[in-house]
Amino acid sequence: MSATSGPAPRDASAAPGRPNVGYPSGHLGHLTADEEAALQAFKASLAGKGYYRPGPPRSHEDGTLLRFLRARRWVVQDAFKQFKDTEDWRATNGLGALYDTLDVAAYEECRGLYPQWTGRADKRGIPIYLFEIRNLDSKTIQAYEKSTEAYFGAATSKPAEATTMTTPTPTPPKLLRLFALYENLTRFVHPLFTQLPDRPHARTTPITLSTNIVDVSGVSLRQFWNLKGHMQAASQLATAHYPETLDCIFVIGAPAFFTTVWGWVKHWFDPVTVSKIFILAPAQVRPTLETFMHPADIPRQYGGSLDFVWGGPANLGPALRDRIAWEPGHAAFPKGPLYWRELDGGTRLECVAVGSVDKVRRMERVCTIPVIFPAREEQQQQQQQQQRQQVTEAAVGTVPEATANAVAEVDNVQPVQKLSLTDKDVLETKSVAEPTAMAPVRA
After folding, report:
1. Is there a contact between 177 and 106 (Cβ–Cβ < 8 Å)?
2. Any residues with CB less than 8 A from the CB of 65 and at least 6 apart, and which?
3. How far is CA 254 from CA 131, 201, 213, in A?
4. Sheet hosting strand 348-353, strand order edge to edge
5. If DSSP states are collapsed to H, E and C, what string results for the chain?
6. How far is CA 215 from CA 121, 159, 280, 314, 320, in A?
7. Over the chain, what is the mean pLDDT?
8. Labelling 86: which of 45, 131, 185, 413 has CA 20 to 30 A away?
9. Antiparallel, parallel or unpaired: β 338-343 and 348-353
């Protein structure tokens, strides 16, 4: 089969003129009445079992909850199960503390094996990642796995046990590092692009997706086979515990034998994600990418003007650079784990560099940005509405019928003894630059 015909379920030729591909439908600010009802029922179900705190401050943002609902096709009971499994998995593996203390060099070693953020976003404001698979080989993967075992200790379970929605077990070392990259996506990259004012729906809809360019040129069938387990584990982890974080995936440079490879790959993703994978023939690459991205945000090797080197730092666009106020000594984002948290009563966000260097834990403010979403007035209205709803339900002792029905379906689930936060545990260590207590920002 030739690369022009492509085995993907969606033909790239259908992409021009339709850059949304479903977005923003099903996202905050664009919910149908039924979807809004499902969200409220989902919250009630989770709160009843100790997996969600409505606040203020609430334990999880609506954008995070909606990812699980979209992944489970708005079936509250199914979304509840996946969310519960994810929270239990996080607690079992101590992921909140792990992200805060992960060695920066170990993080960067893992980053070199997976898609990398270019520093840019597509026309919808969704961040763009690039994955050049030819940079990986079996020796690199073997060296990485040895390194992770030395860092974390021997694996205590099989990868499948850690990446399917079953009773949680300790996760293999190589996946514990991989989780940090997804945390970086949901806790650093997503909140950053959510605060860009020049994107569509900037005042109503947070960013919770990513656009990926996957370059498979120069990769042999043998190399694909040797990387099969590596890529499958990453796909399973995302599907099970970071659902609906992938949007369009553009596969570039597909060789003639890619039909065989596609036979493996299509089973690693859920059907919704598979429907967003485009196999691009050489003549389709530039026009298709330009439908979704501005030329300045497309890497040069694919017809754009962006200078981005695989393995190098993100190349921030002017819209981002203009909004960032760097702390003294910083002019770019440092290596290693990062996340954002609220500052000045929620009117700004600060970027905090965490992890450890030479076994010394770091906690350093890198920069700040102004908040545009949610608007301060909207935050206050949401908090007041939540408080009124809590008071009303406590006084009347009832909830809406749709909510009550969904809650009843999960009554057999035992409540957790302690709330586990999906996106991070609140750090006890205070910022060296700002000694005031600050609430964490969730994806």
Report:
1. yes
2. 39, 42, 43, 46, 52, 83
3. 13, 34, 12
4. 325-326, 364-370, 348-353, 338-343
5. CCCCCCCCCEEHHHCCCCCCCCCCCCCCCCCCHHHHHHHHHHHHHHHHCCCCCCCCCCCCCHHHHHHHHHHCCCCHHHHHHHHHHHHHHHHHHCHHHHHHHCEHHHHHHHHCCCCEEEEEECCCCCEEEEEEHHHCCHHHHHHHHHHHHHHHCCCCCCHHHHCCCCCCCCCCHHHHHHHHHHHHHHHHHHHHHHCCCCCCCCCCCCCCCCEEEEECCCCCHHHHHHHHHHHHHHHHHHHHHCCCCCCCEEEECCCCCHHHHHHHHCCCCCHHHHCCEEEECHHHHHHHHHHHCCHHHCEHHHCCCECCCCCCCCCCCHHHHHHCEECCCCCCCCCCCEEEEEEHHHCEEEEEECCEECCEECCEEEEEEECCCCCHHHHHHHHHHHHHHHHHHHHHCCCCHHHHHHHHHCCCCCCCCCCCCCCCCCCCCCCCCCCCCCCECCC
6. 18, 26, 10, 18, 26
7. 82
8. 131
9. antiparallel
Q: What are 152's two structure tokens?
A: 């974390």
Taking the C-alpha atoms of residue 156 and residue 205, their distance in angstroms, rounded to an integer, is 40
Q: Does the pLDDT of residue 156 top 70, yes or no?
A: no
Statement: residue 3 has pLDDT above 80: no
3-state secondary structure of 348: strand
Rg (CA), the chain: 21
| Residue of higher predicted confidence among 88 and 432 | 88
Q: Pick the residue with more confidence: 422 or 389?
A: 389
One-letter amino acid for residue 79 of the chain: A
Domains of the chain with CATH codes:
10-14+29-165+175-307+376-409 (3.40.525.10)
Structure tokens belonging to residue 368? 């700040």
Which pLDDT band, with edges at 50, 70 and 90, does 424 fall under? very low
- Quick check: helix, strand or coil at residue 329? coil
* Opening angle at CA 402, ends 400 and 405, nearest 5: 105
Residues 165-173, mean pLDDT to the nearest whole number: 58
pLDDT digits (tens, 9 = 90+) for 61-73: 999 999 999 999 9
Query: What gap in Å lies between CA 28 and CA 295, rounded to an integer?
Result: 28
